[in-house]
Design brief:
Mean pLDDT: 91
Shape: globular
CATH architecture: Alpha-Beta Complex
CATH superfamily: Spore Coat Polysaccharide Biosynthesis Protein SpsA, Chain A
Number of helices: 12
Radius of gyration: 18 Å
Distance between the termini: 29 Å
Structural class: alpha/beta
Largest sheet: 8 strands, mixed
């Protein structure tokens, strides 16, 4: 395993999802013609809010010190490949592409980027979340596998995540030394008694190349997908991988559905983008 002397500099962005929630109608939501056109494709990362949402994600990575990124896309996503590979290639961060032929799940998407990682440590992010650069920088400095544990209360108070939506991010069972034991669907009573705060995962990970074996071995989930959280659990239980949990109180902007677009656009209005 190799990593840069100054920390991890490679990132993998999962942009292959079907975007089912974004394609669905949202009563009372008004989009301009360009936003509606992209929303119909389900490609959340390319929703225009002055510029593609993914521009903000890439700029945040560059601000955090990352120098290379791999966009995991599908064969139908030529728009993304042309935009970042031909028409508007960033200069602060080098963009690569990996193709996931079928949307088989997030663990399968990570496997698609194995050649890009080339034995180096790397972070994995969602394409439809805007993570603060300071959080990404903190993750990159670690020398062991890790994930960012986002406080549920901060996601609701500081971000655009509702009390209903925050439950989708599960509850992290973290041991006394700060390492992940498991990801629960809901918090148990002992977790609430210990801290009163629940921490969840928004797919903000730091991995080394041991994760690939777990992604190959993970069974299909009840949703008939190969899911990254289950691959992480398998790596912890069967391969002895320890995953540090970085607890943070920080906002994340979640671009899941059409109702999010106006809110995210307003929140990012004053964020400077430099690619």
């Amino acid at each position: 395993m190799r990593s840069a002397a100054g920390g991890t500099t490679k990132a993998v962005i999962l942009a292959r999802g079907l975007g089912t929630r974004m394609r669905a109608d949202s009563p009372g939501t008004t989009l301009n013609a360009d936003q509606a056109s992209v929303a119909e494709t389900g490609m959340k990362a390319m929703i225009p809010i002055g510029r593609p949402f993914l521009d903000y994600v890439l700029s945040a990575l560059a601000d955090a010190g990352f120098t290379e990124v791999c966009l995991v896309i599908g064969p139908e996503h030529s728009q993304v490949r042309h935009h970042y590979g031909r028409d508007n290639p960033p200069t602060r961060i080098k963009v690569h592409f990996a193709e996931q032929p079928r949307p088989l799940g997030t663990a399968d998407a990570v496997l698609a980027a194995e050649r890009f990682t080339d034995g180096d440590t790397f972070v994995v992010l969602n394409s439809d979340n805007y993570y603060p650069p300071a959080v990404l920088a903190e993750l990159s400095r670690l020398r062991e596998p890790a994930l960012v544990a986002f406080a549920h209360s901060a996601l609701m108070e500081l971000g655009n995540v509702s009390a209903v939506r925050v439950k989708r991010f599960g509850a992290l069972d973290i041991d006394a030394d700060g390492y992940l034991r498991r990801i629960l669907a809901t918090p148990d009573e002992s977790m609430l008694r210990q801290s009163g705060e629940v921490y969840g995962s928004l797919n903000c990970w730091l991995f080394d190349n041991r994760i690939f074996a777990a992604c190959r071995e993970v069974p299909l989930s009840p949703r008939n997908e190969l899911e990254l959280p289950q691959a992480v659990q398998l790596a912890i239980e069967r391969r002895g991988m320890r995953m540090k949990a970085i607890k943070v109180r920080a906002p994340v902007l979640d671009m899941s559905n059409r109702a999010d677009i106006a809110v995210v656009e307003e929140r990012l209005r004053d964020v400077e983008v430099s690619l």
